[in-house]
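Aim 2 progress update. The chain analyzed this quarter is reproduced below.
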Amino acid sequence: MNIYGYTPKEIIRTPEMHPLTWRMREDQQPVWIDEYRSKNGYAGAEKALGGMSPDEIVALVKDSGLKGRGGAGFSTGLKWSLMPKDESMNIRYLLCNADEMEPGTYKDRLLMEQMPHQLVEGMLISAFALKAYRGYIFLRGEYIEAAVNLRRAIEEARAAGFIGKNILGTGFDFELMVHTGAGRYICGEETALINSLEGRRANPRSKPPFPASVGAWGKPTCVNNVETLSNVPAILANGVDWYKGISTSEDTGTKMMGFSGRVKNPGVWELPFGTTAREILEDYAGGMRDGLKFKAWQPGGAGTDFLTDQHLDLPMEFASIGKAGSRLGTALAMAVDHEIGMVSLVRNLEEFFSRESCGWCTPCRDGLPWSVKILRALERGEGQPGDIETLEQLCRQLGPGKTFCAHAPGAVEPLQSAIKYFRDEFEAGIAKQHYNNARAIGGIQPNNLLKERW
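Predicted structure tokens:
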């Protein structure tokens, strides 16, 4: 992850334009509490707890336009407002989704390893607003350095009076713990995360009821992403107008964005919404490596639809990328070059999604392995007439509303878009003898072929 290294475009991080990263050290070491406080750290928490009511904080975050940075892009303030108003429900939980398992995404890791106190402060403010007395950071188990740094930051915050009993003399109590997961992609789904936290199998729950009313251990629970919570301190410290003024888009604030793949300078940078994908690819990531031509890209992780070079001038924002037929997702894009075959690439992605399915519902459990089998055959040049149509049918049957959670719909996004833009590569995988035989007998129905093969 390269946020400091060489880029063709010089980057000067400032508090006004880079609220998430301006405090980061040039030597990439963690910013501990003394340095963090010397750079206006915990000012947002002191303002929030020192004179604002929980409802005022919720309204402020809602007015700021802060959207979830985990991929869904749902209004954070609106999500907070769904927590029950009943004061008798005094046990509430705030969960931080730090299970960053999306292939090609590493923005939360950067923030947790180098800016752990920013997340701690964000959770403190959020917990106060939600009247939650306990918080958990559900951390991907492989993020060992992040776990060490977060635990140290929590202890430093406790010693400074920001964690524990009667914080800042307000009477508000808040405990914060790091919980490392066993490593499952499905834990990115908030109800599967809750099940795992409780010691259960990481299967999604039926909704409704939603976590805001019945969450962890049956109590009201709010789940937010690392980057989302890390935005909260700056909003409290500097106000709504400032936060909205950073962006050149209807989406407010900044976003951790980047490019991976065979580019000259893969990395992640904090940029305002509205920055175009081409600017990130060429000015920050340095363009494709010498001798390689740009072919396609995924805007925000492995579970987003492929786009082509004609979409590179789109602003990186939720609406524009959505209208183009994909999703902004995590905004960590992956560039595909001309030497990479789309069938092999998609087969690799579908193998991952198939392996990570929790197996709870039939379409996902059986449909994804089926797509992998067909893609393997196409990759070997042993595909049969009807295979592509079967893959398209699977994409429809595993789409939104057809499965228990959003795992399968996200899994088929790269598949359906690869067929849409690069169908000729899939057709090239159909064995010529099968194609000729089909023509000779007047065509073979896909269903008959499937009965024979599977």
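Residues 443-454 have pLDDT under 50 and may be disordered. Residues 362-379 form the longest helix (18 residues). These observations will guide the mutagenesis experiments scheduled for the next reporting period.
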